[in-house]
Amino acid sequence: MRNTLLRSCLLASGAAALAIGLLPLSVSRAEEQPRLLPPPALHAAQPHGLQSVVLAGGCFWGVQGVFQHVRGVEDAVSGYAGGAKATADYETVSTGTTGHAESVRVTYDPARISYGEILRIYFSVVLDPTEVNRQGPDVGTQYRSEIFATSPEQAQVARAYIAQLDQAHAFSRPIATQVSALNGFYPAEAYHQDYLFHHPDNPYIAWNDLPKLRALQRLFPDRYVEKPVLVSRPPA
Questions:
Q1: What positions carry a catalytic annotation?
Q2: What is the CATH number of domain 39-219?
Q3: Fewest beta carbons less than 10 Å away: which of 34, 40, 97, 122?
Q4: Distance between CA atoms of 208 and 57, rounded to whole angstroms?
Q5: Reading across the β-sheet that carries 51-57, which strands appear in turn?
Q6: What is one Pfam family matched by this protein (predicted)?
């Protein structure tokens, strides 16, 4: 399987894999680096009770790992969004033919953290939003960046924030992140849950994802919590 090969190469040696050309990673330009972005100018109303949004930004291991350390996040579950339930499994999604994106359902308490702050962390720390159908060494539509909104207001705020960042030239290229209505979220297999927490010494995690955690701690010190909110039971 192509994506298994890519990650196996990273486990062996990212540098060696690049040297023999196994990773389709462009080294001709630097990726966008984490930076503290301004908050959204358009704010969502503060609803009562827990809320959720589904965020795709490359491999779900890192996306989940970051949001599990964000104060006000109650749950972060890796899974698949954008495709049908029948094909929402890792082997099939990894073919890049199902329409799914590797995603994370972030459940948060709006009394403790706003939706706008969730988006701010997402664009500041989690991904390079200028990439199309890839993040780092992972390439394919399943690694696209996309916000799956759970309400029209969430979608409106996300689109306005993207326009705001583009207008301010916050990145060197236009933001490629899509915004869509969530039509279904399917939790990933149990072995994908809490992957960063359980495998911090995995070279893929060390290279791609632990720097994101350090950026979260550096850029959002008031939002960073040392103890992650883990998935305490297998996905339903």
A1: 59
A2: 3.30.1060.10
A3: 97
A4: 12
A5: 178-181, 145-149, 51-57, 101-108, 73-81, 185-187
A6: PMSR
For the chain, give the percent of residues with pLDDT over 90. Answer: 82
Selected residue with higher pLDDT from 235 and 9: 235
Please state, in angstroms and rounded to a whole number, the distance separating the CA atoms of residues 114 and 130: 24
Start-to-end C-alpha separation, the chain:
26
**Per-residue pLDDT, 30:** 63
| Percent of the residues in the chain that have a pLDDT greater than 70, as a whole number | 85
Tens of pLDDT along 149-158?
Answer: 999 999 999 9
Q: Closest Cα to residue 120, out of 86, 78, 170?
A: 170
Q: How many helices (H) and strands (E) does the chain have?
A: 8, 8
pLDDT tens track for 68-98: 999 999 999 999 999 999 999 999 999 999 9
- The C-alpha atoms of residue 122 and residue 216 are separated, in whole angstroms, by 10
The answer to whether the Cα torsion of 46, 52, 54, 55 is positive or negative is positive
Distances 177 to 55, 91, 159, 219 between C-alpha atoms, Å: 10, 24, 9, 21
The percent helix, strand, coil of the chain (3-state, each to 5) is 35, 20, 45
Q: Does the structure show a pLDDT above 60 at 24?
A: no
Interior/surface letters 141-168, b for 16+ CB within 10 angstroms, e for the rest: bbbbbbbbbbbeebbebbbbbbebbeee
| Averaged confidence pLDDT in the chain | 89
Domain ranges across the chain: 39-219
What phi and psi, each to the nearest 5 degrees, are found at residue 209?
-110, -40
